[in-house]
Specification:
By secondary structure, the protein is an all-alpha fold. It has one domain: Four Helix Bundle (Hemerythrin (Met), subunit A) (Up-down Bundle). It is about 70% helix and about 0% strand. It is built from eight helices and two strands, in the order H-H-H-H-H-H-H-E-E-H. It has helices at about 15, 20-30, 35-55, 60-85, 90-115, 120-140, 155-175, 185-215; strands at about 180, 185. The two termini are about 35 Å apart.
């Protein structure tokens, strides 16, 4: 049976791939399955979500929340690298690669929604749009024109945007001792709005690309 090769892989800068080379070698040597790595990203996201959830009470928890968001992204990169290096990429692996990502998006944004530092509605809409953005991106793969990764608010940039909002919120809380509002919205509310608008743009870009390739 010929070795399975994923039809589409998310483009990742080499500088980030280099951070995982030793981890890839370790996982291959220790026979850690890439699906295990994929599932572990849910654990990192759950920790981030809990930290966000409790950050209204203990603002310093925004720091580990941000860090575990990046751990989640790093694990999302590592699983595919391990699969290819170990020669165990499979169609089932595609499911393990995608489903934990969607669970992670929901966990993190729902955690922010219930932090008390932002409106719950903004967090839930950001979670919904994150899932919808990825769903639309998979249309291309389902229709044999390739997984779509275009648009401004891709998975890494959703996390970067959220983390900028979290750092800015922490700075305000430490400097002023209160979660200041701007035009009636907190910084994390504005962060959610940016994520939502960015997701709308990303969905439009991906749909346009798919429709163009379908003719």
């Amino acid at each position: 049976m010929p070795e399975y090769s994923p039809s589409s892989r998310r483009p990742i800068a080499e500088i980030f791939r280099r951070t995982a080379h030793l981890a890839v070698e370790f996982c291959v040597a220790a026979r850690i399955h890439p699906n295990t790595v994929s599932l572990s990203s849910i654990g990192a996201s759950a920790i981030a979500a809990i930290c966000f959830w409790q950050s209204g009470r203990w603002p310093w928890l925004l720091i580990p929340a941000v860090l575990f968001c990046y751990v989640r992204l790093w694990l999302n990169m590592l699983d595919g690298m391990v699969a290819l290096a170990a020669g165990v990429a499979s169609k089932q692996g595609e499911i393990y690669n995608e489903l934990p990502d969607r669970i992670s998006d929901v966990l993190i944004f729902v955690g922010v929604a219930h932090s008390g530092l932002a409106s719950p509605w903004g967090g839930y809409w950001a979670a919904l749009m994150a899932v919808l953005t990825a769903y639309v991106g998979m249309f291309g793969q389902a229709l044999s024109v390739g997984r779509q990764f275009g648009g401004l608010m891709t998975k890494p940039w959703r996390m970067v945007t959220l983390n900028v909002g979290a750092w800015a919120t922490l700075w305000l809380l430490m400097r002023r001792g209160t979660n200041s509002t701007f035009a009636g919205l907190t910084l994390l509310d504005w962060t959610h709005i940016i994520v939502i608008i960015g997701c709308v743009q990303t969905i439009a870009v991906r749909l346009r690309s798919i429709m163009r390739q379908l003719g």
